[in-house]
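Table 4 source record.
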Amino acid sequence: MKDKRKKIMTIFISTLILMVFVLLFNGNHTRHQDEFLGRQWYIKNDGSCSEIEITPELCGISKFKRNIDINISHIWNKKLQNFNNVIIAVIDTGIDFQHEDLVGKEWINRGEIPNDGIDNDNNGYIDDINGWNFCENNNKLLSGEEVYENDHGTMVAGIIAANHNSIGIAGIAGQCNVSIMSIKILTELTRKGNIDNLIKGIEYAENMGADICNLSLGFLNKNKKIEKIMRESSMLFVTSAGNQGENLDVNKQYPACYLLDNVITVASMGFDGELDSRSNYGKKYVDVVAPGTYLYSTCVNNSYNYDSGTSMATAVVTGSAAIIYANRSKVTPNEVKKVICKNVILLDKFKNVISSRGYVDAKKAIEDALNL
């Protein structure tokens, strides 16, 4: 009888030890493996580039350097509460929310009854369920002569928030309670837009409760009305530095050069840790560098592709900021800006061309913001 009890107790203890081991293992390793995660060097760069199709004519660089990434996968493995619903306005081209990796990530205007032809919430826009198309003044977010004109906005949305669902890619804030508000002001494959629609788009995002506004766009002439709207906004603006290879301290463009407490301006670097030759820079106006060269993300019609530029780098910072918003109560845009700009990987090469002198370390920034 004693031997039987001893045997049962041994089995029980062994099972308990195994369960503890499994829990510890799962708590310290990535809980998912999206199909194309290996192509997202900006998430985890092991220096091998084994899963990335290198095309020099598109990318221009081929030297991977280990650990040149935003160090975010460690954060994914922590048990974050994600108790806040974060609304991110992407003012861009349209976004394909039917994409397998973006389903469920669309912002939903609860004040509207879908497709009833009535402005139920009296905000001036009829059936604006997921956002608004200011190019054509309607709710058709995937409009245009060619649907592929909406690749840009769809790629930005994927980098920020693609689902962690074992298919496709993994969005930086894809595991959080984030929703993307699509505000279309750019049209055609050349992504043309106008100032009036940008003003309307920012005002719409503010009025509809967005927390973060991703502005992967730029214009040359300073606009005082836009600057005033942004200054007085409750949103955090993440803006692209631009892709002319110029010093913004000398050749200004906007909104990158609005020196506001709630604006983060982002330059782009490649997987070799070098500033992209096309990226604008500026010690006074550009806050941080982020991966932006050869980023793999979602495109329209359930497809995926690579793209490069400060637009992609901006989305990386937006995704990182979204995790802070999702897990910290009563956080201000300026607090998020400060914690992101403070927690960077310092590099001498950025010392005289970037305000923070480094590139984004999302892990450090998020841990600092959340006191992990």
